[in-house]
Amino acid sequence: MTAPYPDTFKLKGLRQRLVDGLRREGITDEAVLAAINAVPRHAFVESAFAEKAYLDIPLPIGAEQTISQPYTVGYMTQALGLQPGHRVLEVGTGSGYQAAVLHALGAQVYSIERVPELYHRTQKLLRALGYTVRLRLGDGTLGWPTHAPYQGIIVTAGGPAIPPALREQLAIGGRLVMPVGDREVQQLIELTRLTETDYSQRTHPNFRFVPLIGKAGWEG
Question: Is this structure's pTM higher than 0.85?
Fold first, then answer.
């Protein structure tokens, strides 16, 4: 895999230190930690932020969007409970980092981005890095019914409620992870589909994401 910037021994060391910190903070799924350690996060940010990429902080990626904090990526990915070969839908491609982590876990990744600038840039980047992720430009709150049902759905922006289309596209036994709340602070919802009509839900408080824009989200 050829990164836009060299993956130096120093950056690999910083990445390992980040993974060790995530483990101490409660990310316990070793497959998730291995995926985070395999993905060069510095390739998904501007070169000026290369070393900051391995701090546990969000960073700007343009278009008023951010690359999520690594702990948040690990937490949400762990909550999905994915197995290799599972189909997963990501709403909000952004930088492509979360999609790359899902791909490194062995998932079949489908991702939707609404911002053309990010869509085109990230499509080229993921191809250059060798990640096979199917991308679509559009309204992620409507999902991607062509490839449903999904064993996992991850929404990387905060909305007022879980969009009905995403609930419908979740496979029985599958999990959906999404921040829900107002535009400033959300709680992370972990939704499991039990039957055609029944779902169970867990909540995790105090998360902060960019707003989910779309027909079943916030207005742009």
Answer: yes
